[in-house]
Automatic annotation (TrEMBL):
It comes from the Bacteria. Belongs to the AHA1 family. Residues 12-140 form the Activator of Hsp90 ATPase homologue 1/2-like C-terminal domain. It comes from Paenibacillus auburnensis. Pfam families: AHSA1. This is Activator of Hsp90 ATPase homologue 1/2-like C-terminal domain-containing protein.
């Protein structure tokens, strides 16, 4: 199975990086205006909703929360929203955010795995993750995000 894996070192505490992953305001800054919606209870839904092809409430990604360990791990299944399918099959993959303190910084690992071999969102995900990870690092370290222009 294919796997996307990225490791970043961020000049911020695990608490600051964790906030970038779960705080609706901070998530909105790193995910191009999309908010995270979740009770953060394992087994319940998790969604990223925001501006897109279906208007201001476009469902970009959704899944089921698999793990929620504050300041350490956020893991969930991943499916793309209906506007991305274009009549195709909606394959499921898995996203794992892992945090670990390293000296005075935080190691952030993103693993996007359990891909179906024919999932067409693999390539676009690999491209998008670099911008999202860069925004997390910049937001945690400086309080702002990067200007990538139009991301579409």
């Amino acid at each position: 199975m294919k796997e996307l894996k990225y490791e970043f070192y961020i000049g911020a505490t695990p608490e600051q990086v964790w906030e970038c992953l779960i705080s609706p305001d901070k998530v909105k800054q790193i995910y191009y205006g999309s908010s995270i919606r979740s009770s953060f209870v394992v087994g319940e839904p998790l969604e990223y909703v925001g501006p897109g092809a279906d208007g201001s409430e476009t469902l970009h990604v959704y899944g089921t929360l698999l793990e929620f360990t504050p300041r350490e791990a956020l893991r969930f299944t991943h499916k793309v929203g209906p506007s991305y399918l274009k009549g195709g099959i909606n394959y499921e993959s898995r996203i794992s955010w892992l945090l670990a303190p390293v000296g005075g910084c935080t190691k952030l690992t993103l693993i996007h795995d359990e891909w179906h071999p024919e999932d067409p969102s693999y390539g676009p995900s690999d491209s998008a993750w670099w911008q999202i990870l860069s925004n997390i690092k910049t937001l945690a370290e400086t309080g702002g995000t990067l200007d990538f222009g139009s991301w579409k």
